[in-house]
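Q: What does the predicted 3D structure of DUF2621 domain-containing protein look like?
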Amino acid sequence: MLSGWFLYFILFWVVILISLFAIGGFFMFRKFLKRLPKEDGKSILDWEEHYVKKTIDLWTPEQKELLEELVSPVPELFRDVARQKIAGKIGEIALEDHAKEINREHVIRGYILATPKRDHKFLRKKLRQMNIDDSPYEHLFQQ
């Protein structure tokens, strides 16, 4: 039978492995849910790709640079996912507005709407750092 420090070592690793599997499983399950088709036959990720592809020609270099600056606080590991989600929302807004070109207004509105409510404090901080007045977009923070 195991006893002493080796028993505690094994129990410690069992707890660590179960915790890591649970965390990984949680994130995999979230990705799986986003891939499930909705009533219209497309998933959340399919719609994001659709909006990005439809509006790829509407982006100006300045707006691409602004988007890169806005997603810079996101940890590098998650930055691509955040960029895709925000760009999809910006594309959706631009298509709803029948825009000929994506402008700063679209980028900021899409950035606010695509960001989870729990991150709005960091979002406001980034906008202030960039000297962007967030008061015209106050109604978007409430949605």
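A (community wiki): The structure tokens above were generated from the sequence. The helical segments are 5-35, 44-55, 61-71, 76-96, 104-114, 120-129, 138-141. Residues 5-35 form the longest helix (31 residues).
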